[in-house]
Design a protein that fits this description.
CATH class: Mainly Alpha
Helix content: over 70%
Mean pLDDT: 89
Number of strands: 0
Largest sheet: none
Shape: globular
Order of helices and strands: HHHHHHH
CATH architecture: Orthogonal Bundle
Low-confidence stretches: none
Distance between the termini: 14 Å
Radius of gyration: 18 Å
Number of helices: 7
Strand content: under 5%
Number of domains: 1
Length: 188
């Protein structure tokens, strides 16, 4: 049984780590949207931080980091598309392991992931264009034309599938190489 001081240290460690993850997530997405080069990449990099929180602590902590980051991005980010992209797909590293563990068939698992990513992207753009009436996003799609929009949508989902595949090796790198070097995460 853990002592009260040990539990207190563990909670303090989790809160500090989660606070750093929220701050870094917000900074990554803000930089990506301000520089206009990481509109879609920056939210995915920020989502990787949720993977580290999930691996170190609990999915409850990871969900709270995602919620706090999303709220701050909606308030602070000048590019609504980047903020919503993080909000709609950034949570995937939290639930990835549940999907991978509960669905045995690789083909079914891939189809589920494809459907989740397609639904998230579709819901996000429907919300941005038809509910929030973001004219800039609508104009971008109008400029692409039908086939350009379909190609953009398909490449977006493909990038999310590749991102999903990269999360497993990143988790191994975190647990085997990075975590041992971070003294504040070494539980004593």
């Amino acid at each position: 049984m853990k002592s009260r001081a040990s539990q207190s240290r563990e909670i303090s460690r989790a809160i500090a780590f989660c606070g750093m993850a929220v701050a870094l997530s917000v900074v990554l997405v803000l930089l990506g949207s301000l520089l206009q080069i990481g509109l879609y990449a920056a939210p995915l990099f920020a989502g990787i931080l949720l993977l580290f929180v999930r691996l170190e602590f609990d999915s409850r902590y990871a969900w709270s980091v995602w919620a706090a980051s999303t709220l701050l991005l909606l308030l602070l980010c000048p590019d609504r598309e980047a903020a919503f992209y993080y909000g709609f797909v950034g949570w995937w590293p939290i639930v990835k392991w549940s999907v991978d563990l509960h669905i045995r068939s690789r083909a079914v698992r891939s189809l589920v992931k494809l459907a989740v990513f397609a639904a998230a992207i579709t819901a996000m753009y429907l919300l941005l264009v038809h509910v929030l009436h973001l004219i800039s996003v609508d104009a971008e799609f109008q400029g692409l034309g039908l086939w350009g929009a379909v190609l953009f949508y398909g490449l977006n989902v493909l990038c999310l599938m590749v991102w999903d595949r990269l999360l497993t090796p990143l988790s191994l790198i975190w647990t085997q190489r990075i975590r041992p070097k971070l003294s504040f995460l070494n539980r004593k």
